[in-house]
Amino acid sequence: MFRIGCHLSVAKGFLDMGRTAVSIGANTFQFFTRNPRGGSAKAIDPEDVRSFLEFSEENDIKHLLAHAPYTLNGASADPGVRRFAAEAMTDDLKRMEFTPGNCYNLHPGSHVGQGVDEGIKLVISMLDSVMDEDHSTTVLLETMAGKGSEIGRNFGEISRIIDGSRMQDSIGVCLDTCHVFDAGYDVVNDLGGVLDEFDDIIGLDRLKAVHINDSMNSIGSNKDRHSRIGEVNLGLEAMIRIINEPRLRTLPFYLETPNELPGYAGEIAVLRSHYVSQ
Ligand code: FE
Ligand code: FE
Ligand code: ZN
Q: How far, in Å, is the centroid of ligand 1 from the Cα of 176?
């Protein structure tokens, strides 16, 4: 079955996100755990979560994907920035237990000049300090476009983080189609080859989610500017191949395209119409 959703605003709580998802034809969604550029997190209302869980059961909403704030950088050279990252992620993982068994998506971080080896070491040490065997959440490392000093610009860097962590059983990967394209992986002309490489280096069993976005820039640009489905460099045909690819088709897909709700509803309808049920 096709699991498709988009990024929704958490401002009015979980039940509101569930209702919004249903209203645009989605059966999953992503949301920010807190202000993407700041630190504050709204308190979780247990009553709202209880109503949401009931609603999602009735409406078959599954595979929530929480997204960590962009400012969370466990690879920073600045100890204050690293401390914020560890504190925010610890708090987020605690809050995730209100909706157990879902995924938490994280940009691995930016090493800001210290070099990728040092950055990877710091990310591993953050994950090892904030993740806990008692948590039911799977932490997903997102494949990045490689802008600035981003870590996770290739499958090798992601794999080194996972391999280095004591918590590797609870770590997976979220493949962002815009990011990998911008990073130089040709998901348009060689999707099969890219997935073979992913399997060799990381292992496809680690792949838990797909961010399905087109890109405003060309392959290898390292830019990270998302565009709408079928607009610009990947194109609709590539999107259709991605959602139907045997190794991807059972994963949840999340749109992070520049859209308001009606735009998302339209993209979901287009992708649904091209998903070949088996
Ligand atoms: Fe992201
Ligand atoms: Fe993404
Ligand atoms: Zn992006």
A: 8
Q: What is the pLDDT of residues 159-197, one digit of tens each?
A: 999 999 999 999 999 999 999 999 999 999 999 999 999
Residue 199, pLDDT above cutoff 90? yes
Please give the full DSSP string across 195-261, using - where no structure is assigned: HHHHHHHT-GGGEEEEEE-EESS-TT-----EE-TTSSSSHHHHHHHHHH-TTTTTS-EEE--S--H
- What mean pLDDT is predicted for residues 145-150? 97
CA-based R_g, the chain, Å: 18
70: CA distance to ligand 1 center in Å? 8
Ligand 3 center–CA 246 separation, angstroms: 25
User: How confident is the model at residue 41, as a pLDDT?
Assistant: 86
Q: State the CATH architecture for 4-274.
A: Alpha-Beta Barrel (3.20)
Q: How far, in Å, CA of 97 to CA of 82, rounded?
A: 23
Cα 192 to ligand 3 centre (Å):
22
Decide: helix, strand or coil at residue 227.
strand
DSSP structure class, residue 205: G
> Scanning the structure block, which residue is given the tokens 């059961």?
57
Tokens standing for 64?
């929530």
DSSP SS3 for 207: strand
192's tokens: 């099969």
pLDDT single digits (tens) 99-141: 999 999 999 999 999 999 999 999 999 999 999 999 999 999 9
